[in-house]
Design goal:
Elements lengths: L13 H23 L13 E4 L4 E4 L26 H16 L9 H10 L5 H4 L5 H10 L11 H18 L27 H14 L7 E4 L6 H6 L2 H6 L3 E6 L10 H14 L4 H15 L3 H5 L6 H4 L10 H19 L6 E6 L6 H6 L7 E4 L3
Parallel strand pairs: 3-6, 4-5
Antiparallel strand pairs: 1-2
Length: 384
């Protein structure tokens, strides 16, 4: 299936076609400059929000269309990499637009949302000029720069991108050819003070975490404790595994303990799994049905035990039989048993599970008892 073209397709030759597309891209850049200068971002550039009048190549960018996960979604918008969403997400989406316009192909093929997220985060797109040798190599370079997984590797501004696009038009006109060459990004500067989001000097700690992800992908249960003073970056370190886990089609969920909620059993675990259920509820009906079957098998007649603490689970598995009232100790043992089965339903080789529990110093005894079945923890000092 080919994407719908919005730029003139019946241009006399490739030079005219390329110039039409680049002219539209320059117009989009101008509008992005206006948006970004207000310290805002559009966040939803796609084939629906970019409206083009073919007779004049006039571009109107709409804002009212609701955001949904799509080919245009940037890696940081998926929430699966440890990067903030800022104006550079618009530059990524513009790169997707240009890729489609020049190649006539979608950026990725996928069967469900999990596969799409994996592609966005981990899969490197085929260079446009390899799909069509008529595409100017310098345009291919510009598009691939826009599609960089790391926002810091993209253009620093829409103005820098605009300069390269205008330079292409100028050179292609003067040389009467699209096969022009020049170093891209030479006039690409940012007027913002930005602190890099990359971790520096923590390669050994990151490697420990990434190796653990590799091992749990082979059905090994592990408990790692990241130790360090408050505010030195332990959370940022742990979040660095997002990309690796997405490559494994896995899930990363997190919960945070609170010193004023230590009397609430499993508080952070419940918070984490509430987030996981919310993720699953966004998946396609076929995938949702598969999850329903898997979870029901794991919980048997005890589904209501989990629904009592994670009400949204009922939206997946439906109404469940009432559970027998037990004495407090017996009820706690039953919950522990059922909750462990619930966790095992998600921790599979096809989709490994990482649960990050923050501020463990405030952990409750019920959670500690729940973790007794895990191997002894690996402890390392995080010097972030």
């Amino acid at each position: 299936m080919k994407p719908k073209y919005t730029v003139k397709e019946l241009a006399p030759n490739w030079m005219h076609k390329a110039q039409h597309i680049i002219t539209v891209a320059i117009d989009i850049c101008n509008q992005l400059v206006t948006i970004h200068d207000k310290d805002k971002l559009h966040g939803n550039l796609n084939s629906e929000t970019i409206q083009i009048e073919n007779s004049t190549n006039t571009v109107v960018i709409k804002n009212e269309i609701k955001y949904t996960l799509s080919q245009y979604t940037s890696p940081e918008q998926t929430g699966r990499i440890n990067k903030l969403v800022d104006y550079r997400t618009d530059l990524y989406s513009l790169g997707v637009f240009l890729y489609q316009q020049f190649t006539g192909n979608f950026l990725f093929t996928f069967s469900d949302e999990i596969e799409l997220i994996h592609s966005i985060v981990a899969k490197i797109p085929t260079p446009p000029h390899e799909l069509n040798s008529d595409i100017p190599p310098v345009i291919s370079q510009i598009i691939l720069k826009l599609l960089s997984k790391n926002p810091e590797d993209r253009y620093k501004s829409a103005l820098g991108l605009k300069y390269d696009l205008e330079l292409f038009l100028k050179k292609s006109e003067s040389e009467k050819s699209v096969n022009v060459f020049f170093p891209i990004g030479e006039m690409d500067f940012s007027n913002r003070f930005e602190i890099p989001q990359k971790l520096y000097g923590r390669d050994s700690e990151t490697e420990i975490l990434l190796n653990a992800v590799e091992r749990i992908s082979n059905l090994n249960a592990e408990l790692l404790i990241v130790k360090g003073f408050s505010g030195i970056g332990k959370t940022s370190l742990v979040n660095s595994i997002h990309k690796k886990l997405t490559e494994k089609h896995g899930y990363f969920i997190s919960g945070k303990y609170d010193q004023f909620k230590r009397n609430i059993p499993y508080s952070a675990l419940i918070q984490a799994f509430n987030g996981l259920i919310s993720q699953i509820l966004t998946e396609h009906p076929e995938k949702l049905a598969a999850w329903k079957s898997k979870i029901q098998t794991a919980l048997s007649i005890n589904g209501q035990v989990i629904i009592d603490v994670i009400p949204d689970l009922e939206l997946i598995i439906g109404k469940q039989p009432k559970i027998e009232k037990l004495e407090p100790n017996e009820a706690q043992n039953r919950f522990r048993y059922v909750f462990e089965n619930f966790i095992e339903a998600f921790a599979q080789k096809k989709h490994p599970l990482v649960v990050f529990l923050d501020d463990l110093q405030w952990v409750d005894m019920a959670t500690l008892n729940c973790n007794r079945s895990l191997p002894p923890p690996s402890l390392f000092q995080s010097g972030v």
